[in-house]
Amino acid sequence: SHSAIAQLLKGAVAVDSQVTVKGWIRTRRDSKAGISFLAVHDGSCFDPIQAVVPNSLNNYNDVTTLTAGCSVEVTGKLVRSEGQGQSFEIQADEVNIVGMVENPDTYPMAAKRHSIEYLREHAHLRPRTNMIGAVTRVRNCLAQAIHRFYHERGFLWISTPIITASDCEGAGEMFRVSTLDMQNLPRDDKGNVDYSEDFFGKEAFLTVSGQLNGETYCSAMSNIYTFGPTFRAENSNTSRHLAEFWMVEPEVAFADLNDIAKLAEDMLKYVFSAVLAERRDDMEFFAERVEKTAISRLESFVEKDFAQVDYTDAIEILKNCGKKFEFAVEWGVDLQSEHERYLAEVHFEAPVVIKNYPKDIKAFYMRQNEDGKTVAAMDVVAPGIGEIIGGSQREERLDILDARLEEMGLNKDDYSWYRDLRKYGTVPHSGFGLGFERLVAYVTGMGNVRDVIAFPRTKGSATY
Ligand code: 4AD
Ligand code: MG
Known about the structure:
By secondary structure, the chain is α+β, with helices and mostly antiparallel strands. It is built from 13 helices and 16 strands. The chain starts with a helix and ends in a 20-residue tail after the last helix.
């Protein structure tokens, strides 16, 4: 058996015990005195552990040919390190070379700085770098913290389907799922594709959101959340959009918009705290190399209340701020990323919850406000990235929901199961969706969602 390097560097294993680590060489340095210093990493923490290899080992000559990326098993005594910045090291008495790197000169991940674009083109090798290693651990920490947060509050995790027939957001950005022969599509008399011959006997798509299914379980289990992949055939080539991304969607019975705005704030503070407590090593790297304020801003957001502003007031702020935007601002327009970022970065200098948007720019399921013009919707917007959460109170009144379906030209029959929830014991309920990659990009300061998911799917690109 062997130890994770994180356990050794943390001091969880007694000094002077015999240990084995298994991992990959980051760097090697040989001293004139006949000692080779190996930095070995295994992904368990930011720092590699140093193995001190004396030339008394009978494969010492082979050890001095090790290069970045070679795989090894090192056994020896764990001792306190005299060297700077290292707490513990291993005095090796055995180095088992498992896999060499053929032709180190052309090894794509040789130990030097690579551009982020270069790393994207080598997505299968990039987890070997410091940076993507750190992203991977922070992403995991955030995912675990999210599950913990909801578990502690008694929410049940529901797995909603990935293949669906309904377009939750109504934005027409769904990927079709079909087994029909594209060269030879069955047609009806009018020449339209006949999906009754398709696998499910009707049209089917990849889900854009688990919300509608989540609402059915919320209407019986009270507090639920989903955490799974969602898909959007969105034609936007930006640093915030993926075609495949993960969403966290809590849905809460007997809750209004303010209740879930509070839930969103509590959740974000909880996960920020978890990252600060558990991934200090990685966050120090991001603060040094990627985003100076990576740690300090999380610390300050955990302390202070998020700002809250009504859409209508936000429009006034933007109109009167004196800044020239690419997209003009007036009541009724959807806020663009530049507007969101101005509000969060310049005006409020904090994450901000924007509430009560015009109903015409929002989805059919949002609850109409008394004014007849707005719906009880909210977005949480963060400095540096813009919208990370979108949510709303849901329309729980059947007559108003039906009127809205009709107004938007949607077929009532397609929503019969959704309407049932309003017929049988309806309750006010609310929920939101957190874009998980946007959260990770924000926390790490990485800035581009393509660098915080293992194998990004974007328009024109689905390698691996
Ligand atoms: O605002 P959206 O579209 O809301 C919904 O889908 C609701 N049904 C959620 C709910 O109320 N249960 O998406 C929610 C979040 C956005 O705020 C954004 O963070 C993220 O999902 N998101 C994307 N992330 C990466 N790439 C994309 N193409 C995204 N589209 C949305
Ligand atoms: Mg949205």
